């Protein structure tokens, strides 16, 4: 009998202590996690009487955005996303939802707002231990869509890439895929108070003093990278700026017709794969789902022109092997080539701007400009070299530029394989 009474006493005591915590104004549950970019902290206090949820969020501001969401999956999660406001010193809080593993969209029916209560630290970008930090105090009034009796409520968190910033007052700002993410549980029961008067808003708004409490990391941290877009950029920019010009050099300078064909064929395959990856990635982001932007339309045109260009060269070559006669396909092929390279080159700039990575345009422009300068120099040098070797006459100059045939075999073969 005594063990039973002892157990009952301990159970009752634990229950009363739990209820006392619920009515204690300092009741909070806090998740704190160190990442490669800095520390992320998320603390909450829930109000049983009104259903309000107060939370405090801290994260390194060198990341373009930070988000905490309910549940263990993105699908149907309610996410609180934060990024810099237009002035660069404030923050924008955007409540968002997602129906799959895609960019979350703004949910205007979720009335969560910044909570700049008098006497508390205001939300914004603050300096903490020499690091710029997102410091956010917010409240979700009324139905918070959470069960405050849940001792292990699932949450997710994510940090955006740190190679760019977002400065926007709009709650619908475009974001890029996260670079770090993870999951955790939080005891909402221990973080619940009875009324608004019990919420210690000053303590909840404190910056930099948080320790993990009534929370647990689930599954460890995960690093992430948008490999699809990276491969898309490498394949397309690499083909138009590097691979195709090298193919031209093999034909015009080194007189390697087969190698020219092989290189341009590989480039065509990379273009097709790159365009496919770009179309697939478009579905992940709100601003690109319609496929109507200049970059997307021109990209599809450039891909089609590349396919036509390869087909013209192949068709002309096959006919020439039978007839040893130049064809209309070869003439079109000669002049279409520079156009294809130019369209692909320009679309690279549009693509970086479209993805919010316009700062890459400087490097892209320098690399592309250097490549085309080298190509033009090699073609000019090769034409001069061959003209001098042939005697330097204007006719010889035209012959070596592929404009005036010396004999059906040589001239037409050049035209057939450009």
From TrEMBL:
Instruction: Name the GO cellular-component terms.
Output: membrane
Q: Which Pfam families match?
A: CDH-cyt, DUF2427
| InterPro entries named in the record | Cellobiose_DH-like_cyt (IPR015920), Cyt_b561/ferric_Rdtase_TM (IPR006593), DUF2427 (IPR018825)
Q: Which residues form the signal peptide?
A: 1-18
TM spans, by residue? 227-254, 261-281, 293-312, 332-350, 362-381
Chief location category: membrane
Domain Cytochrome b561: start-end pairs: 231-352
Q: Which UniProt keywords apply?
A: Electron transport, Membrane, Signal, Transmembrane, Transmembrane helix, Transport
**Where does it live in the cell?**
Membrane
Q: What protein name is recorded for this chain?
A: Iron reductase domain protein
Organism listed in the record: Melanomma pulvis-pyrius CBS 109.77
């Amino acid at each position: 009998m005594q063990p039973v009474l002892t157990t009952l006493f301990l159970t009752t005591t634990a229950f009363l202590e739990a209820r006392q915590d619920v009515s204690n104004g300092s009741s909070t549950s806090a998740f704190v996690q160190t990442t490669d970019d800095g520390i992320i902290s998320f603390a909450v206090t829930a109000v049983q009487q009104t259903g309000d949820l107060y939370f405090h969020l801290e994260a390194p501001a060198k990341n373009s955005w930070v988000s905490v969401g309910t549940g263990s999956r993105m699908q149907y999660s309610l996410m609180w996303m934060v990024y810099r406001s237009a002035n660069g010193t404030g923050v924008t809080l955007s409540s968002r939802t997602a129906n799959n593993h895609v960019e979350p969209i703004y949910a205007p029916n979720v009335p969560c707002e910044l909570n700049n209560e008098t006497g508390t630290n205001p939300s914004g970008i603050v300096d903490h231990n020499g690091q710029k930090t997102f410091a956010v105090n917010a409240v979700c009034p009324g139905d918070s869509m959470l069960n405050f009796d849940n001792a292990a409520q699932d949450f997710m968190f994510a940090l955006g890439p740190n190679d760019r910033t977002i400065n926007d007052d709009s709650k619908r700002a475009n974001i890029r895929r996260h670079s770090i993410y993870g999951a955790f549980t939080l005891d909402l029961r221990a973080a619940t108070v009875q009324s608004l008067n019990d919420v210690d808003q000053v303590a909840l708004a404190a910056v930099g003093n948080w320790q993990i409490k009534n929370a647990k990391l689930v599954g460890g941290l995960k690093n992430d990278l948008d490999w699809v877009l990276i491969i898309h950029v490498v394949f397309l920019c690499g083909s138009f700026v590097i691979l195709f010009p090298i193919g031209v050099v093999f034909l015009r300078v080194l007189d390697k017709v087969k190698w020219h064909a092989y290189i341009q064929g590989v480039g065509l395959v990379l273009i097709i794969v790159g365009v496919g990856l770009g179309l697939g990635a478009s579905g992940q982001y709100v601003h690109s789902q319609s496929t109507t932007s200049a970059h997307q339309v021109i990209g599809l045109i450039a891909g089609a022109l590349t396919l036509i260009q390869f087909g013209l060269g192949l068709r002309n070559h096959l006919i020439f092997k039978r007839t040893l006669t130049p064809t209309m396909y070869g003439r079109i092929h000669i002049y279409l080539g520079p156009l294809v390279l130019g369209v692909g080159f320009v679309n690279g700039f549009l693509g970086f701007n479209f993805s919010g990575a316009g700062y890459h345009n400087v490097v892209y422009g320098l690399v592309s400009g250097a490549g085309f300068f080298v190509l033009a120099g090699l073609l000019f040098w090769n034409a001069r070299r061959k003209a001098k070797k042939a005697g330097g006459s204007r006719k010889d100059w035209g012959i070596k530029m592929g404009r005036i045939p010396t004999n059906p075999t040589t001239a037409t073969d050049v035209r057939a394989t450009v």
